[in-house]
Amino acid sequence: MNIIISENQHELGQRAARQGSQFINDAIRQTGRANIVVATGASQLEMLSELVKAKVDWSKVTGFHLDEYIDLPADHPASFRKYLIERFVEKVNPASFYFINGEDDPGSECKRLGEIILKHPIDVAFVGIGENGHLAFNDPPADFETNQPFITVNLDEACRRQQLNEGWFSSLPEVPLQAISMSINQILHSRHIICTVPDERKSKAVSNSLQGQVTPEVPASVLQKHPGTYFFLDRESASGIHHKQV
After folding, report:
1. Are 2 and 87 in contact (CB under 8 A)?
2. Alpha helices of the chain — where are they, by DSSP H?
3. Which of 41, 96, 166, 226 is a good FRET partner for 201, with 20 to 30 A between their CA atoms?
4. Has residue 242 been placed in a domain?
5. Residue 166 pLDDT
6. Predicted pLDDT of residue 22
7. For the CA atoms of 232, 160, 188, 125, what is the dihedral angle to 10 degrees?
8. Cβ proximity of 80 and 68 under 8 Å
9. 8 Å CB contact between 105 and 72
């Protein structure tokens, strides 16, 4: 487990993108291609804005979508498909990008994506941590046992309130109750994990995830077990942890 703390969110984004792009380029040099997972949300904005500037041969990169709401249209302002198209896919034009379609039958969509990702071992997963400690949309208590790559999950109130407070929705009833998410174990299959977590409101979740017990009640705590995880924090999000590395 590697903890890197920056002075501000812009520096955090730069350092996370630099490390992630290095791992992508390493994979391309070793195998001729790279497979990545890309997260969304407010926490990823700075990192993605830097990642799209990186010197990477994106024509050799295949991308996967981390999570998506169920029954939310792709043109909704909170759609993660919309987010990724506008902030990443249209800017770098990867070889291919597999989106989660939350408007299709969830069971069939999980099966479809699961079959595809099993043929594309992930080199780098870009993820974040929620205010409730969730990893992707695996809210507490998360399923640490399933080996299905993609699963249907229920979103708890803390998660839904975070989406509202970040401005993606205008009222709590508008926030969907369910989503399709990459599972915990699928995330852990990634060779490298770049976990980008800015902001003081995430400080408790960060300290619980990095220095607390590994438990489904704090889903992101499972990252303690993955030696290839790099946590990129700013001073605010790191304010609750000890023995900090700058």
Report:
1. no
2. 9-31, 45-51, 80-84, 90-92, 106-117, 157-165, 184-188, 203-211
3. 226
4. no
5. 87
6. 98
7. -50
8. yes
9. no
Q: Report d(CA 104, CA 215) in Å as an integer.
A: 32
Asked whether residue 241 is domain-assigned, the answer is: no
**Would you call 204 exposed, middle or buried from its count of C-beta atoms within 10 A (0-12, 13-18, 19+)?**
middle
CA–CA distance, 27 with 6 (Å, rounded to integer):
26
Domain count along the chain? 1
Instruction: Say which CATH number the domain at 100 has.
Output: 3.40.50.1360
Mean pLDDT by 10 residues, the chain (246 residues): 92 97 98 97 93 98 96 93 96 97 95 97 97 95 97 95 90 95 98 96 95 96 97 95 59
What pLDDT is recorded for position 246? 42
Contact 191, 125 (CB under 8 A): no
Query: How far apart, in whole angstroms, are the C-alpha atoms of residue 134 and residue 140?
Result: 7
| Phi, psi dihedral angles at 203 (to 5 degrees) | -60, -40
pLDDT of residue 188: 98
| Residue that the structure tokens 């990724």 belong to | 84
- Per-residue model confidence (pLDDT) at position 243: 56
Q: Specify the amino acid at residue 34.
A: A
Helix and strand tally (H, E) in the chain? 8, 10
Phi, psi for 231 (deg, rounded to 5): -95, 120
Nearest to 242 by CA among 202, 198, 210, 205: 210
Show the domain range for 66: 2-234
In a domain, 243, yes or no: no
How far apart CA 115 and CA 91 sit, in angstroms, is 27
In a domain, 35, yes or no: yes
Amino acid letter for position 174:
E
